[in-house]
UniProtKB/TrEMBL annotation:
Keywords: Mitochondrion, Phosphoprotein. It holds the Pfam family XPG_N. Residues 127-164 form the XPG-I domain. Transmembrane segments: none annotated. Gene3D superfamilies: 5'-nuclease. One of its GO terms (molecular function) is 5'-flap endonuclease activity. This is Exonuclease 1. Residues 1-80 form the XPG N-terminal domain. The keyword Metal-binding does not apply. It comes from Eucampia antarctica.
Amino acid sequence: AIDASSWLYKAGYGCAERLVESIESGISDPICERIYCRYMSARCQELQSLGIRKIYLVFDVKRCPLKADTNAEREQRRQSNLKEARRLKALGQNTKAQDKYKMCVKGTDTMARIVTSSFQKARVKTVECVFSPFEADAQLVKLVVDGHAHAVVTEDSDILVYSA
């Protein structure tokens, strides 16, 4: 069972500027969609090459209300980094701008739904996308407790609260 949010975040690095600007404008970018879908698929294929037969990609649906302050701080930092990225790009400092754009990347519900759709269209039976009611942590543990998964892959220390 995979906390797919961290993978989405990393998937966005491959097209950081395009992704961030498309999220800000509300206009989808098919190039970015292909890049992050390929990233997610490649990560699943890596696990399958190690003998893992079934993968659950668990996506967050809503932000936990208890983390509202933390999420607001993250969004404020993201907006500050976006302003700086645009400034650096305007000055022709593209490498520094790209680093700032990477600091603005976030996984979105739209990205999760596009990834899910790409696995469905490809008829991949070994990867199941699950949408958790709130954050993925509890759903990841539930998949293990119910015997659907034998391990959790996450970078989120909140999983320790759920004893996974």
